[in-house]
Amino acid sequence: MKKSYITFAIETSCDETGVAIVDSSGLFEHRIIVNLLASQVKLHTKYGGVVPSLAAREHVKNLPLLVKRALKDYGSRQFDAIAYTDTPGLEPALLVGRTFAKTFAYALGIPAYPINHLHGHLFANFVQPMSNSSGLFPAVGLVISGGHTQLYLLPSPTEFNLLGETLDDALGEALDKGARLLGLPYPGGPKLEKLAKRGRPSVFTFPTPMLKSNDFRFSFSGLKTSLLYKIRDMKIKKLSPQMKADLAFAYQKAAFDAIVEKTKNALAQTNGRSLLIGGGVAANQTLRAQLQKTLQQEVGNIPFLVPPKGLCTDNALMIALAHAVPHFASR
Ligand code: KG4
Ligand code: ZN
What we know:
alpha/beta
């Protein structure tokens, strides 16, 4: 019988408190025992974004409750390791999870492992069973979250070589800011996606940022300014629902075209054998479809790994996997 390895994971980098327990028996063999999430989105909506000190206070309140429930559901205190989000994220929020994880590990007499949250987003893909995992690497990894936009080359499941990242706003942040300009509440990314589906192509266009930069860097702050000026120059007191949808379409398209183009180039330049994506914006169906189509038509039919929609945004399961997968890779 294969030895099982139990990871207890904690995520508190932003506005979601997460606790997960995963039973792993191989590189790509993971059984989810517990995956709990307490969202603070409603609390932060009225401020139009996440307030770090409030987020930390909510984590202090919610983390012990989730841990208690996880232990009850699991029915044991036997773990091999604690994995916790160490960085990046909102420092007051991270501090809550870090301190809890280290104290809990000390009390249980087991090791606590710091996890990079962004690598965690890509590890969310490994929740799905994979039959031919060896053929996936070297892979290109695309992290598209509220705080980061990064392209990686992964020579193996445990090596992350950063190819490039955003110079200013992250993709999720740009979508949230654009959505706000169109009167949508925080977090605007999913609402903008819905609105853009009713938008007509070619009514408005925005330049695709950094298209000609010939590298893997992104920039989205200028796009947001273009939308601001476009709305101002239209000199209309109240934009009609159709106008808003048309603007949403064009805005999202310009941002996604930059992502798709650079990802395609990264795959070509590195001879990547698969594409892994992760982070909140990876939940966007329009972007998923656009990436899929480009892979098929311009790159070749390589595997395209996308986490289940609910595991694109922050969660502790991906943090557990970010520890468990490398644990088995190093054996
Ligand atoms: O990964 P995540 O949960 O948090 C960070 O680590 O930042 O990502 C949150 C971001 C937000 O900007 C949110 O608007 C965006 O992901 N997001 C989406 C969608 N779902 C979440 N953006 C576009 N379309 C979606 N369906
Ligand atoms: Zn995240």
